[in-house]
Amino acid sequence: MKRLLTPLVLSIALAAPAAAVADPLTLSLEGRTAALGEGGAEIAAYDEHSERVFVTNAAADRLDIYNFSNPAAPTLVKSINLPGGPNSVAVRHDGLVAVAVEASPKTDPGSVQFLDLDGKLLGSVGAGALPDMLTFTERGTLLVANEGEASDDGTVDPDGSVSVIRVNRGATRISLRTADFDGVRTSGPVRVVCAGATRSEDFEPEYIAVGDDGEALVTIQEANAVGVLDIRRARFEVVRSLGFKDHGKTANALDPSDKDNAIQIAPWKNLFGMYQPDAIASYEVKGKSLFVTANEGDVREREGCEEESRVKDLTLDPTAFPNGEKADAKLGRLTVTKTLGDKTGDGDYEQLYVFGGRSMSILDDDGELIFDTGAELERKAAALEPFAFNADNVDPVQADNRSDNKGPEPEGVTVGKVGGTVYAFLGAERQGGIYAYDLSYRKGEARFAGYLNTRPGDLGPEGLQFLSAQDSPTNQPLLLMTNEITGTIAAISIDD
Length: 496
Description:
The chain has helices at about 200, 375-385, and strands at about 10-15, 25-30, 45, 50-55, 60-65, 75-80, 85-90, 95-100, 110-115, 120-130, 130-135, 140-145, 160-165, 175-180, 185, 205-210, 215-220, 225-230, 235-240, 245, 260-265, 270-275, 280-285, 290-295, 300, 305, 310, 335, 350-355, 360-365, 370, 410-420, 420-430, 435-440, 445-450, 460-465, 480-485, 490-495.
């Protein structure tokens, strides 16, 4: 792998040693598609019968279909124009392809387009505003996360929702129900960020993972929450806050500065994190569903609702922050929310809250957080790949330039079984890299099991899909990684 270094030389100061590495998986690049540039590949879905990969190409408003029978040299089969822009794609076990397509403007209701494996349009159905992700249940029901993002000027703010769609193979019979947030019960400090917005307007579903008991968990990223969805009834049972991560603990340390000329992972008193997961995936332990989340973080930023600030631009309580924390080499450059932390209402901040957990978490089937990787993503990157530590998804690489803003920024996650063991695979959107975690130790625990970064050939990992040995064209487990910045789809082989 080519390593492009900048003149900056970083010293490394870790607050605690990295955890012992479990017996690692070996991850290696098998092949990739030609680079199409930013937006050329975002989300991919694989069909094991045709050995084709269906990929959303947001830059060209189309769906690209690739032949992946030889992952070392995939080839483009055809492209299907989808005006408005495809956001997500999924393939059902019978070969039905579903594509979430947003409208123009994005605040209008979107749609789901149904195609066959050759890209022939079979039918369509309406969805909520900005359908951003979709997935099939094992029984073939389609779930669509309608983000309902507001217009840039804030004048139009559609409701977030989840569409529950039943559809036959030919897409000639389609039924649609909508799960919204009207009157939904909440648990814990669920955020409603924008003043004057209802919960339905402010809750924006991001990603869905299906459990084994007729329920699904839906990430509601900006709210720092997940919704428990009853699929059969098409309604939310509860929206549960994920709480806050205490970065004052050594286990949850972080590097908060891009101007300290060093990798310095340390705890900071009165600093907390909102987990704010993006992708979520499910797996089973002793008949119970558990869920892994990629805690990316996200910010409300539109006219009339702008919550982000650098710490140095806030007034800090001198008792809570007595040691010059506003310096650029300390917390000054760190981006935080203005909506939390002024506990006494006197205009200064006794606590600070950052966007994203910089981690992977495990939730139970009620959405309760039971495990988090803490500071391990940053510590592993510092130990294994300091030249790309908290780097942005651009080339040439410049280490540490995202420490002030969500760090490695984990976005995609998927789960699969390799050699009888269940693993999670987590993609870091900014620094690049796939982290593998062994989920088999005991209920609610994950241990590091491997790492690979394929930059600069692949920049901006966006979506991940695991292919079992049974479904893979190589008869070995594979990971498909779509990369938003380079517009590539990388096939990564997995060996235990």
